[in-house]
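Researcher: Following up on the earlier apo prediction. This time include the ligand. It's 2-acetamido-2-deoxy-beta-D-glucopyranose, with the SMILES given after the sequence.
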Amino acid sequence: MKSHTQKEMDTQLIFLLCISLLHFRPPATTAATATNATGGIETDQIALLALKSNIKQDPQGVMGSWNESLDFCQWQGVTCGLRHRRVTILDLSSRGLVGSLSPFIGNLSFLEEIILRNNTIKGEIPPEIGRLFRLQILWLSYDSLEGEIPANISLCSNLVLLSLRNNMLVGKIPIELASLSKLKTLIIDFNNFTGGIPPFFGNLTSLKTLSASSIAFGGSIPDSLGRLENLLFLFLGGNELSGMIHPSIYNLSLITYLSLNDNQLQGSLPQNFGLAFSHLQNLQLWGNQFTGSIPDSISNASQLEHIEMQGNNFTGKVSVNFRGLHGLLFINLACNNLGSGEADDMSFLASMANCTNLEHLALSQNQFGGSLPSFVANFSTQFQQLVIGRNQISGNFPSWIGTLVNLNVLAMNY
Ligand SMILES: *[C@@H]1O[C@H](CO)[C@@H](O)[C@H](O)[C@H]1NC(C)=O
Ligand SMILES: *[C@@H]1O[C@H](CO)[C@@H](O)[C@H](O)[C@H]1NC(C)=O
Ligand SMILES: *[C@@H]1O[C@H](CO)[C@@H](O)[C@H](O)[C@H]1NC(C)=O
Ligand SMILES: *[C@@H]1O[C@H](CO)[C@@H](O)[C@H](O)[C@H]1NC(C)=O
Ligand SMILES: *[C@@H]1O[C@H](CO)[C@@H](O)[C@H](O)[C@H]1NC(C)=O
Ligand SMILES: *[C@@H]1O[C@H](CO)[C@@H](O)[C@H](O)[C@H]1NC(C)=O
Ligand SMILES: *[C@@H]1O[C@H](CO)[C@@H](O)[C@H](O)[C@H]1NC(C)=O
Ligand SMILES: *[C@@H]1O[C@H](CO)[C@@H](O)[C@H](O)[C@H]1NC(C)=O
Ligand SMILES: *[C@@H]1O[C@H](CO)[C@@H](O)[C@H](O)[C@H]1NC(C)=O
Ligand SMILES: *[C@@H]1O[C@H](CO)[C@@H](O)[C@H](O)[C@H]1NC(C)=O
Ligand SMILES: *[C@@H]1O[C@H](CO)[C@@H](O)[C@H](O)[C@H]1NC(C)=O
Ligand SMILES: *[C@@H]1O[C@H](CO)[C@@H](O)[C@H](O)[C@H]1NC(C)=O
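Model: Understood. Below is the ligand-bound prediction.
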């Protein structure tokens, strides 16, 4: 990397020398030195043309402007630095491009951002990208990339965002990536890696977003993830993860979106769940094998908007006080073993009186008994879906349901 920096500095130096030499030397010689001076620029042009030649379909004609009659800094999708006239950003997202990524991309040594998301870029990620030590953003999601993630990407030590969502990548996620200490966003969902969620992710301590749903099958949640104390978004759904949530995970005190759905996780949630995750806005635990009660402390996560805990084996009376959850939009506790069959099973609904944004409430297929509270004062006017069938609820049809003017689904066949 040092030699790279050195090379660029040398190029600049020669460029400066040339400007002064111009006054003294005959034109023939200046032409020769000028070629040297602009060497980096020529390399960029050669590299861009190599990239173009690997694109086989360009339905929007984006690369029509990529010809030598126009300065390449003006080619569509290309941004150059003002000082060096070297390519700093390559942004060709959503252009319908079909092709592969030329290894020449590794010669665009001033690149800071590569954004090729949502095209049909096939083939492997060229390891030459590892030569781009200025690279901060590598955004290749929704393409058709194959093969393994090249370990050389770990040489892009300034990388802040790496997104490879929705490709066809396979193999082990290279452990070398553990050195990407500036990485804030890692998005690798919907690929076909082996080896489960790698424990070295816990070394990426700058991470704010770790999005790794449906990437690999099996294993458990590595306890090392508890070291990611800056983490705001954690998505690990659809990975067939088993075992319990390790206590270290409850150290992720800033987490706002926790998605562990559609795995085979077991065990009960600790009583202090909502205190540990007091910034939670979106909780996705559906489709696991969790047991035990819904912790009352959920009410302490006062910014909660979505709660989806359906399809587990949660048991017992729901005694959460929803009074403080003013932002609640969506709550699904269906398909568990909740309720005691007692007369006051549904009384927690009364505490939802001030959840004025609530749109969806599902409690079906549980063991709830008793009757619905006769009033839920000022239940949300936004309310759209009430799904409470397949329980043991009895009693009169409460009149407040008739006041839900926006209701479009009412399932309460009990
Ligand atoms: C400049 O380019 C010429 C011809 O390609 C080469 O002979 C010469 O060594 C180069 N000079 C420098 C300083 O790189
Ligand atoms: C080169 O690009 C310019 C700008 O888009 C265009 O006007 C011109 O026709 C192109 N030339 C060739 C030979 O494709
Ligand atoms: C993906 O690109 C296509 C054009 O090729 C565009 O129509 C579509 O909106 C893009 N999708 C996203 C999610 O950006
Ligand atoms: C650029 O990269 C390619 C492939 O990685 C290489 O063959 C080529 O010699 C490099 N240099 C220049 C100046 O294009
Ligand atoms: C990958 O990195 C190694 C050094 O770690 C280097 O020797 C090798 O040339 C790099 N590969 C490419 C294709 O740049
Ligand atoms: C991913 O792996 C599964 C199981 O090995 C296989 O059925 C599926 O086709 C693979 N998908 C891709 C995109 O490679
Ligand atoms: C991860 O961090 C731990 C503790 O700092 C260290 O011992 C380990 O070597 C690191 N792992 C990798 C793959 O860098
Ligand atoms: C949680 O973090 C505290 C310090 O913030 C640390 O002492 C403790 O060991 C961590 N717990 C786990 C289980 O990692
Ligand atoms: C947690 O919520 C309960 C019930 O809403 C409340 O009584 C308690 O004071 C809250 N605790 C904290 C630490 O906010
Ligand atoms: C749910 O838990 C109960 C005991 O609490 C157990 O009898 C039942 O088999 C469990 N159901 C499932 C589907 O795991
Ligand atoms: C709803 O809010 C009002 C006003 O803030 C308060 O007086 C009332 O006790 C609340 N009701 C419930 C059930 O939390
Ligand atoms: C319900 O709304 C009415 C006005 O629409 C208001 O007078 C009453 O205080 C509210 N009740 C509660 C418990 O917030």
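Model: The first helix runs from residue 2 to 21.
Researcher: Noted. I'll compare it with the apo version next.
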